[in-house]
Amino acid sequence: MTAADVPRTAADVVRAAGTAPDLETLDARVVDCFACPRLVAWREAVAAAPRASFRGQTYWARPVPGFGDPHARVQVVGLAPAAHGANRTGRMFTGDRSGDFLFAAMHRVGMANQPTSVSADDGLTLTDVRVTAPVRCAPPANAPTPEERRTCGPWLAREIEVVAARVLVVLGGFGWQAVLTTLSEQGWDVPRPRPAFAHGAEVVLRRRAGAGAADGRALTLLGCFHVSQQNTFTRRLTPEMLDAVLLRARALADG
Fold it and tell me: Which domains are delineated in the chain?
């Protein structure tokens, strides 16, 4: 991508995402995005003032692309990269406690070759699953604005089209609402009133007629409590609960 092609506005993101012919091109364009000034400033400020435990490390400090099997039938969708997690390592859910919990579960159910995820070059590979997010840059206070989520939405929409997964496991209520909004804006029929988030909630969506090459395609959303420390330390989300959701996602994909 030339300097002139780097996405710097919402319109640039629509063009760059919509014309990406494959996943490799899409991921490369995501990494070069500068469309949200507040998020660009924050991701770089965090990198300039790392936590003491990460001092001396070079932070990624760029948008984070999805990671995993390019032909996955299941996609796990969070909300945004963690400031000292994926914003540091450059890989979704890598380098923080949330990722420790998530990838350990994937390993238990046969979706990952190892239970840990500490760096982008640690040898982790995923089978039949890909992790992603509706917002690709770490936001202040873990809270992207509606405008930032809307600007970033075309990246997720194109990734869903290219990967062609059958199930989205959506982590947490904030992520659930962000995904429903993004899918609605990108051509999917979302019921009104919107389906409420719940752990284990299942919703089947279809592409609206005329929305694109995937017209009529079905996609199942499966809700799961977020793998945040707040949920895992209090056992609101247990390993057994997360395993059950991942196994259910695989069963739905098989069905």
Answer: 3-254 (3.40.470.10)
